[in-house]
Amino acid sequence: DTELVFDGVPVVLIDTAGIRRKSSSRDRLERYSLLRGIHAMERADVVLLVIDASAGVLAQDQHVAGYALEAGKGLVIVVNKIDLVEPAQRKPAHWRKALAPEFKFATFAPVVQVSAKTREGIGTLLPAALEVVGQRRIKMPPNELNRVLREAFLEHPAPSYKGRRLKLNYATQASDEAPTVVLFVNDTELLHFSYRRYLEKKIRERFGLVGNPLKLVLRAAK
After folding, report:
1. Can you give the pTM of this predicted structure?
2. Which of 78, 87, 166, 169 is spaced 20 to 30 Å from 28 by Cα?
3. Which CATH class is domain 2-136?
Protein backbone atom coordinates (compact mmCIF):
# COMPACT_ATOMS: atom_id res chain seq x y z
CA ASP A 1 0.00 0.00 0.00
CA THR A 2 1.07 3.59 -0.64
CA GLU A 3 -0.06 6.33 1.73
CA LEU A 4 -0.18 9.97 0.65
CA VAL A 5 -2.02 13.23 1.20
CA PHE A 6 -3.80 14.86 -1.75
CA ASP A 7 -5.21 18.36 -1.26
CA GLY A 8 -5.23 17.74 2.46
CA VAL A 9 -7.04 14.41 2.14
CA PRO A 10 -5.30 11.20 3.35
CA VAL A 11 -5.29 8.61 0.55
CA VAL A 12 -4.19 4.97 0.51
CA LEU A 13 -3.39 3.45 -2.88
CA ILE A 14 -3.86 -0.33 -2.95
CA ASP A 15 -2.11 -2.20 -5.77
CA THR A 16 -4.20 -4.86 -7.55
CA ALA A 17 -1.58 -5.70 -10.16
CA GLY A 18 -2.22 -9.37 -9.50
CA ILE A 19 -5.35 -9.28 -11.67
CA ARG A 20 -4.32 -10.38 -15.15
CA ARG A 21 -6.03 -10.63 -18.49
CA LYS A 22 -4.48 -13.64 -20.16
CA SER A 23 -6.04 -17.09 -20.32
CA SER A 24 -3.00 -18.45 -18.52
CA SER A 25 -4.83 -17.47 -15.34
CA ARG A 26 -5.72 -21.15 -15.02
CA ASP A 27 -2.26 -21.67 -13.69
CA ARG A 28 -2.17 -21.94 -9.90
CA LEU A 29 0.12 -18.94 -9.52
CA GLU A 30 -2.14 -16.84 -11.72
CA ARG A 31 -5.18 -17.92 -9.72
CA TYR A 32 -3.44 -16.94 -6.52
CA SER A 33 -2.57 -13.55 -8.00
CA LEU A 34 -6.17 -13.04 -9.09
CA LEU A 35 -7.50 -13.87 -5.63
CA ARG A 36 -4.95 -11.53 -4.08
CA GLY A 37 -6.10 -8.77 -6.39
CA ILE A 38 -9.75 -9.35 -5.49
CA HIS A 39 -8.86 -9.32 -1.80
CA ALA A 40 -7.16 -5.94 -2.33
CA MET A 41 -10.35 -4.62 -3.92
CA GLU A 42 -12.32 -5.66 -0.86
CA ARG A 43 -10.24 -3.24 1.22
CA ALA A 44 -10.90 -0.30 -1.09
CA ASP A 45 -13.62 2.33 -1.22
CA VAL A 46 -13.14 3.00 -4.94
CA VAL A 47 -11.78 0.77 -7.70
CA LEU A 48 -9.97 2.30 -10.66
CA LEU A 49 -10.46 -0.14 -13.53
CA VAL A 50 -7.70 0.34 -16.11
CA ILE A 51 -8.56 -0.52 -19.71
CA ASP A 52 -6.04 -0.67 -22.56
CA ALA A 53 -7.26 1.78 -25.22
CA SER A 54 -5.39 -0.10 -27.93
CA ALA A 55 -6.93 -3.46 -26.99
CA GLY A 56 -10.47 -2.42 -26.12
CA VAL A 57 -12.69 -3.91 -23.45
CA LEU A 58 -11.96 -7.52 -22.53
CA ALA A 59 -14.31 -9.93 -20.78
CA GLN A 60 -12.19 -9.77 -17.65
CA ASP A 61 -12.57 -5.98 -17.54
CA GLN A 62 -16.33 -6.49 -17.34
CA HIS A 63 -15.96 -9.21 -14.72
CA VAL A 64 -13.77 -7.03 -12.51
CA ALA A 65 -16.16 -4.08 -12.83
CA GLY A 66 -19.09 -6.33 -11.97
CA TYR A 67 -17.29 -7.76 -8.96
CA ALA A 68 -16.39 -4.29 -7.67
CA LEU A 69 -19.98 -3.07 -7.90
CA GLU A 70 -21.37 -6.28 -6.43
CA ALA A 71 -19.04 -5.73 -3.48
CA GLY A 72 -20.44 -2.22 -3.07
CA LYS A 73 -17.32 -0.40 -4.24
CA GLY A 74 -17.19 2.85 -6.14
CA LEU A 75 -15.92 2.59 -9.72
CA VAL A 76 -13.87 4.81 -12.04
CA ILE A 77 -13.11 3.49 -15.53
CA VAL A 78 -9.61 4.52 -16.63
CA VAL A 79 -8.78 4.31 -20.34
CA ASN A 80 -4.98 4.02 -20.55
CA LYS A 81 -2.61 4.25 -23.54
CA ILE A 82 -4.62 6.91 -25.36
CA ASP A 83 -1.31 7.97 -26.92
CA LEU A 84 -1.59 4.84 -29.09
CA VAL A 85 -4.98 5.63 -30.65
CA GLU A 86 -6.11 8.04 -33.35
CA PRO A 87 -6.82 11.68 -32.34
CA ALA A 88 -10.56 11.19 -32.87
CA GLN A 89 -10.48 8.37 -30.30
CA ARG A 90 -8.98 10.60 -27.63
CA LYS A 91 -12.13 12.61 -27.11
CA PRO A 92 -14.16 11.90 -23.94
CA ALA A 93 -17.35 11.62 -26.00
CA HIS A 94 -15.81 8.79 -28.02
CA TRP A 95 -15.09 6.65 -24.98
CA ARG A 96 -18.39 7.37 -23.25
CA LYS A 97 -20.15 6.10 -26.37
CA ALA A 98 -17.76 3.18 -26.91
CA LEU A 99 -17.93 1.93 -23.32
CA ALA A 100 -21.69 2.32 -22.82
CA PRO A 101 -22.66 -1.01 -24.46
CA GLU A 102 -19.80 -2.84 -22.72
CA PHE A 103 -20.68 -1.55 -19.27
CA LYS A 104 -24.47 -1.25 -19.38
CA PHE A 105 -24.51 -2.12 -15.69
CA ALA A 106 -22.13 0.75 -14.84
CA THR A 107 -23.29 3.73 -16.89
CA PHE A 108 -22.98 5.86 -13.74
CA ALA A 109 -19.19 5.31 -13.54
CA PRO A 110 -17.02 8.27 -14.61
CA VAL A 111 -14.54 7.65 -17.45
CA VAL A 112 -11.03 9.11 -17.30
CA GLN A 113 -8.54 9.04 -20.19
CA VAL A 114 -4.82 8.81 -19.46
CA SER A 115 -1.47 7.83 -20.85
CA ALA A 116 0.93 6.34 -18.33
CA LYS A 117 3.70 6.85 -20.90
CA THR A 118 3.19 10.56 -21.63
CA ARG A 119 1.53 11.33 -18.25
CA GLU A 120 -1.45 12.85 -20.04
CA GLY A 121 -4.51 12.91 -17.80
CA ILE A 122 -2.71 11.39 -14.80
CA GLY A 123 -3.58 14.42 -12.71
CA THR A 124 -7.30 13.68 -13.11
CA LEU A 125 -7.20 10.24 -11.47
CA LEU A 126 -7.22 11.15 -7.78
CA PRO A 127 -9.78 13.97 -8.17
CA ALA A 128 -12.09 11.53 -9.98
CA ALA A 129 -11.64 8.89 -7.27
CA LEU A 130 -12.20 11.39 -4.45
CA GLU A 131 -15.35 12.68 -6.13
CA VAL A 132 -16.72 9.13 -6.10
CA VAL A 133 -15.79 8.81 -2.42
CA GLY A 134 -17.66 12.03 -1.71
CA GLN A 135 -20.70 10.75 -3.59
CA ARG A 136 -20.67 7.60 -1.43
CA ARG A 137 -21.22 9.78 1.62
CA ILE A 138 -24.17 11.74 0.29
CA LYS A 139 -27.05 11.88 2.75
CA MET A 140 -30.55 11.51 1.37
CA PRO A 141 -32.96 13.37 3.67
CA PRO A 142 -35.99 11.13 4.39
CA ASN A 143 -38.54 13.73 3.30
CA GLU A 144 -36.78 14.38 -0.01
CA LEU A 145 -36.11 10.69 -0.66
CA ASN A 146 -39.76 9.80 -0.09
CA ARG A 147 -40.92 12.71 -2.25
CA VAL A 148 -38.74 11.50 -5.14
CA LEU A 149 -40.01 7.93 -4.84
CA ARG A 150 -43.67 8.84 -4.46
CA GLU A 151 -43.45 11.03 -7.55
CA ALA A 152 -41.79 8.12 -9.38
CA PHE A 153 -44.64 5.78 -8.39
CA LEU A 154 -47.22 8.34 -9.53
CA GLU A 155 -45.46 9.09 -12.80
CA HIS A 156 -45.05 5.43 -13.69
CA PRO A 157 -47.00 2.96 -11.49
CA ALA A 158 -45.42 -0.41 -10.82
CA PRO A 159 -46.59 -3.23 -13.12
CA SER A 160 -49.24 -5.52 -11.67
CA TYR A 161 -48.60 -9.19 -10.97
CA LYS A 162 -51.52 -11.59 -10.49
CA GLY A 163 -53.79 -8.66 -9.85
CA ARG A 164 -51.48 -7.09 -7.28
CA ARG A 165 -49.29 -4.02 -7.58
CA LEU A 166 -46.24 -2.87 -5.62
CA LYS A 167 -47.06 -0.03 -3.23
CA LEU A 168 -44.59 2.06 -1.29
CA ASN A 169 -45.21 2.78 2.37
CA TYR A 170 -42.02 4.76 2.99
CA ALA A 171 -38.29 4.68 2.32
CA THR A 172 -35.15 5.45 4.28
CA GLN A 173 -31.41 5.49 3.68
CA ALA A 174 -29.47 2.73 5.42
CA SER A 175 -26.18 3.41 7.18
CA ASP A 176 -24.16 1.03 4.97
CA GLU A 177 -20.88 2.24 3.42
CA ALA A 178 -22.31 1.91 -0.09
CA PRO A 179 -25.45 3.94 -0.94
CA THR A 180 -28.40 1.83 0.22
CA VAL A 181 -32.10 2.65 0.29
CA VAL A 182 -34.59 0.52 2.20
CA LEU A 183 -38.11 0.45 0.74
CA PHE A 184 -40.97 -0.59 3.01
CA VAL A 185 -43.63 -2.00 0.68
CA ASN A 186 -46.81 -4.05 0.70
CA ASP A 187 -45.17 -7.15 -0.84
CA THR A 188 -41.44 -7.67 -1.38
CA GLU A 189 -42.10 -10.14 -4.21
CA LEU A 190 -43.75 -7.58 -6.47
CA LEU A 191 -40.68 -5.56 -7.54
CA HIS A 192 -39.82 -6.38 -11.17
CA PHE A 193 -36.17 -5.91 -12.16
CA SER A 194 -37.09 -3.30 -14.78
CA TYR A 195 -39.00 -1.28 -12.19
CA ARG A 196 -36.05 -1.57 -9.83
CA ARG A 197 -33.86 0.03 -12.51
CA TYR A 198 -36.48 2.75 -12.97
CA LEU A 199 -36.48 3.60 -9.26
CA GLU A 200 -32.68 3.59 -9.15
CA LYS A 201 -32.62 6.02 -12.08
CA LYS A 202 -35.01 8.39 -10.33
CA ILE A 203 -32.95 8.35 -7.14
CA ARG A 204 -29.75 9.02 -9.10
CA GLU A 205 -31.35 11.90 -11.00
CA ARG A 206 -31.97 13.64 -7.68
CA PHE A 207 -28.99 12.63 -5.53
CA GLY A 208 -26.21 11.85 -8.03
CA LEU A 209 -24.25 8.98 -6.44
CA VAL A 210 -21.74 9.22 -9.31
CA GLY A 211 -19.53 6.15 -9.63
CA ASN A 212 -21.34 4.20 -6.93
CA PRO A 213 -23.68 1.22 -7.01
CA LEU A 214 -27.10 1.86 -5.50
CA LYS A 215 -28.63 -0.95 -3.50
CA LEU A 216 -32.38 -1.15 -3.01
CA VAL A 217 -33.48 -3.37 -0.12
CA LEU A 218 -37.14 -4.32 0.25
CA ARG A 219 -38.86 -4.81 3.59
CA ALA A 220 -42.48 -5.69 4.26
CA ALA A 221 -44.35 -2.75 5.76
CA LYS A 222 -46.05 -3.57 9.05
Report:
1. 0.86
2. 78
3. alpha beta
